[in-house]
Amino acid sequence: SSTVSSSCQAWTRRLWEFVREDSNRVTFAFKVGLAVLLVSLLILVRAPYDIFGTNIIWSILTVAIMFEYTVGATFNRGFNRALGSLLAGVLAIGVGQLALYSGRVAEPIIIGITIFLVGAIISFMKQWPSLVPYEYGFRVILFTYCLIIVSGYRMGNPIRTAMDRLYSIAIGGFVAVLVNVLVFPIWAGEQLHKELVASFNAVAEALEECVKKYLEDEGLAHPEFTKTVMDEFSNEPAYTKCRSTVNSSAKLESLANSAKWEPPHGRFRRFFYPWSEYVKVGAVLRYCAYEVMALHGVLHSEIQAPYTVRITFKSEIEDAVTKAAEVIRDLGKEISNMKRIGDTIRSSLLKGVHNSAERLQRAVVAKALPPTNGDENDDKMSSQLIIGNFEQRK
Amino acid sequence: SSTVSSSCQAWTRRLWEFVREDSNRVTFAFKVGLAVLLVSLLILVRAPYDIFGTNIIWSILTVAIMFEYTVGATFNRGFNRALGSLLAGVLAIGVGQLALYSGRVAEPIIIGITIFLVGAIISFMKQWPSLVPYEYGFRVILFTYCLIIVSGYRMGNPIRTAMDRLYSIAIGGFVAVLVNVLVFPIWAGEQLHKELVASFNAVAEALEECVKKYLEDEGLAHPEFTKTVMDEFSNEPAYTKCRSTVNSSAKLESLANSAKWEPPHGRFRRFFYPWSEYVKVGAVLRYCAYEVMALHGVLHSEIQAPYTVRITFKSEIEDAVTKAAEVIRDLGKEISNMKRIGDTIRSSLLKGVHNSAERLQRAVVAKALPPTNGDENDDKMSSQLIIGNFEQRK
Question: Is the reported ipTM for this assembly greater than 0.95?
Fold first, then answer.
């Protein structure tokens, strides 16, 4: 039982860590609970139920399907659902009336054919690259069309059915949006901003970590690269963050997509805030991350330059890396504070990187150019140095 | 009108290209149409409608929501929906009975509280990292629970409602799975296999393209990196493919996740086929792609080694790159044919790479080690050479 209680403790600790990492997680959970409760009250309390009837059930479905983590994503999904329902409703009512006038035999045939056509065309369209973000809207069109036209056929009066359903979907959407915006709103724009700043810091940290390991390591205890690449490299936390930066393009894009739907808020007091610039900066930063990942690959590759060679330029390497990481961090800070640092500061930073890079170059040239009549040992070292270098490139 | 007809022609051509690129897109669209048609027939034809009543409408909803591109993804989504509906049904019936026995006043209060709790707990749980893939299942639990318990309260007999709904969901799921598996099935496993092989080729091509551009380019007409990085680099098709390889981790993982649900098929005649190994190989390959992306960054950076320096080792560089690309392509071919090439062939390939790398090293050493009393010109060149090198690293 002591093992049970200790594993229970460990589990509680993990749960606590998970919550503390991002308290929005709990906020979001409570908001969902609140939204479904509010919309259920519409049915549990007698008055609204008497007005809207059983169709009010669709408002619950709408809340459960539409409620998203951020304000922007909820707006976006709501827009998809509203427009999709509207289009499908108009189409279904039109086709339904047409089928009604074409006689008892033709009616189910026309309905069947249009269902097939709508299914096929919608499914084809949603694969078109520029329409992919609206995948959910297409799904809504498909099932709304089928529902309205089929229930119209079996239950008569498709317009009444459609309108009742649209009302209850609108109520559900309204509740979802209200709760999402008014109760501790989680803004996609704010998330995007934080995410990008964190990426800058992650790249800078990973760069420093990589080089530190390279200079520390005796080059003997290398676990096989292909075996460890999938694992977490748990002793390299900065690398893990950098890897998630490398894979962040989809996340940044979807956040920017959501943020476009949000009204001005907090520090972002402008309509048409240029959220897509965040995605572009992220793409450029990712190029830095690729270089760091390439360095990381070197660190864990099997063929390594001997420790003595690596340590030769220790101070120069460390200096260059510190300066480079500083530049990346400062760019991140600029974005974080939404303030340009002066051009003079920036150019002095860049000059610092350039100088320490040159110092490293000079050191390499000095060691790699032994006197032509140099002794065997020196020669061997310089060749190892260059081969070590090449292995990095491959 | 000639501009209209020409833009219409251009549009048709793009559409045709889109279809020819992957004919599965049309197949998928027709399959969706067929599935919704089949399930609609259940309502349009009198007999099944008389048996199941209006609840049969849920089978349409199920098909529209469950039908996915690949067989595995459909199974996966179907499993989520089935298990979610079942759990929610059991829970709702239990709570519903409990609330029923607790009196007229307490009943709506109990129902309201449980709706809030289920909403909050489900929304919290689905954010837990290891449960994220089942996000859809949690959504299903939430809205099924609300629907059953609320309609049970208002319409009486929750068990009957729940059972009818489960039946029609099962029918919808059955139709979706049947059509997906029997009519031109699109297997996630096959897609995963092709995707990985294509990635190997993309990396090899991009490597060659990069170096070719580097040696071709006069180093003068460089568009600014930050301005072009977001565009398509339309004159570098291989790079675009390589970039999508770099961003493919989510795609490979979701395909592997889907493939696990598929029965043995085609060339993959084994239960428990090791699909996760594809993801691992993809991760290792991505490290190669990072290096190529790093090289690509060099190609488009502002500071460039002068053309004369770059061209000095042209033949050695080209030889090394060709050999390296060959190794990558051969690994891709091995996976494509699902056959190991002999160890001797592989080791001779690797030795080829190694030899041409060494030849390049030697050439660099020879040029970078001018006699210590060398003339000014030579010295300047070697320093430029090394600085050019360093810029690549940064």
Answer: no
